[in-house]
Amino acid sequence: MKKELSLLEPSDILKFDQETSSIPGIIKLTLGEPDFNTPEHVKEAGKKSIENNRSHYAASSGTIELRRAFSHFMEVKYGLDYKPEDEILVTAGATEAIYTILGSILNPGDKVLIPTPIFPLYIPVTLLNGGEPVFLDTSKNGFVLSPDVLSEALDKHGDAVKAIIFNFPTNPTGVTYRREEIKALVDVLKEHDVFVISDEIYSELTYGEGHVSMAEYIPKQTILINGVSKSHAMTGWRIGFICGPADIMTKMGMVHQFTITSAATIAQDAAQEALENGMDDGAEMRVQYQKRRDFVYQKMVELGFNCPKPEGAFYLFPEIPEGLIQNSLDFCIDLAHKAKVAVIPGDSFGPGSEGHFRISYAASMETLKEAMNRIGEYVKKNKKSEESLR
C-alpha cells in the first residue's frame, strides 16, 4: 500500500451525514448540494445526447464544443481569456480537478499553503500526493487571509512552498474576497514563484458585489477550478473545468488522461447546453439562496449565535455560544439527537474551525423554518444561564 494512505481518514462530512441519517425525523442541513433540479433544457440536451448515441469516448481534454462554450462563459462573466484548444481541461467534477492539479505539481516534501477554515478535501489530496499542508488560520481576521499572514508564511517556508489554495466564496463560511482584498494578496503572490490554485466553484452564487477571479490579475500563476455543479445544479453530472497556461495544462492533461481518460460525453453535451443557452440559469437560484441566507442568518443571530454574514455559496458558519456544549462534534451530536437537526461539526474544516458548525441552507424555506424552530427550542432548553457558568 502507498505509505501516504496511512495519513488519510474517511471524510468527516460524509461520515457525520451518514451517521445522522438514521435518526428518525432528522432534518439534514449537512451536504453542500443544491436542492434545485437541473434546468429542463439541460436535461433535454442530455436526453438528446443519449438518443444520438453519444456514448463513445470524448477527447480526453473534453469536447471542443464544451471547451469553447466554457471559454465564452468565462470571458462574458469574469473577463477571463482562456483558449479552448489548450488552456481548458474538462474534468469529472471539481473533485477530480483538485486531484489532477495536486497530482501534477507536487513532489515529495513540497508545501501547500491552505487558509482555513476550508473545504477539507484539499488536505488529504495534498497528503496523498506527498505534499505537506501548511495551515493559515484566518479565524481572527473575519475568515479572510491577510497579506501580512500570507507574506510571513511565504518568507518562513521559502522555496519549499509549491502552491497556495484559495476557495471562494468559501466553504464553509460563505465569506468571499472582494476586489481590493484580492489585489492586496496578488501584490504578495506575484513576488513569489508559487502556483495559485483558485477553486471558484461557487462564483455564480455571490450576493452583493460580483465575483472577482484571482486569474484576472495573475493568469500565468493561477490554476483556476470551476464547473457547473453549483451554478446549474448539476452535481451528479460531474463536469468541472481546470484553466491555466498552456504549458501547465499540457502536463495536467496527461495526469487527467491516465486517471479517468475523459469525462462522460453525455454529461459534457448537457453542460454545453447549460453554458451556451443557460448562462444565467443560476440567477434565480441565487435569488432564492439569498432569501434563505437572510432568513437563517437573522434567526441564528436572534438565538445568540455569532457568525459572519455569508457573501456567497450556501453556508453559514456559526460560533457555538457560551452556555451550550463547546466541543463542535459533541454539540452537533447532541443537536442531532435532541433537536433532530443535523449540521456539520466545525472541526472538519481545519484550524480555526473548532467551536463552530456549518449549516447548509440549500434546502426549502419550509425546511429551514422548521430547522430554526427546532434549534431555537434546543437553545432554550439546553443553554445554561450566565450565573450557572460563573
TrEMBL record:
Keywords of this entry: Aminotransferase, Pyridoxal phosphate, Transferase
Domain of life: Bacteria
Alphabetized SUPFAM superfamilies for the sequence: PLP-dependent transferases
Cofactor(s) listed in the protein's UniProt record: pyridoxal 5'-phosphate
Any Gene Ontology biological process: amino acid metabolic process
Pfam short name (any one): Aminotran_1_2
EC class name: transferase
GO MF, one example: pyridoxal phosphate binding
Residue intervals of the Aminotransferase class I/classII large domain: 26-375
EC number: 2.6.1.-
Family in the record: Belongs to the class-I pyridoxal-phosphate-dependent aminotransferase family.
PANTHER family on file: AMINOTRANSFERASE (PTHR46383:SF4), ASPARTATE AMINOTRANSFERASE (PTHR46383)
Protein name, per record: Aminotransferase
Organism of derivation: Sporolactobacillus shoreae
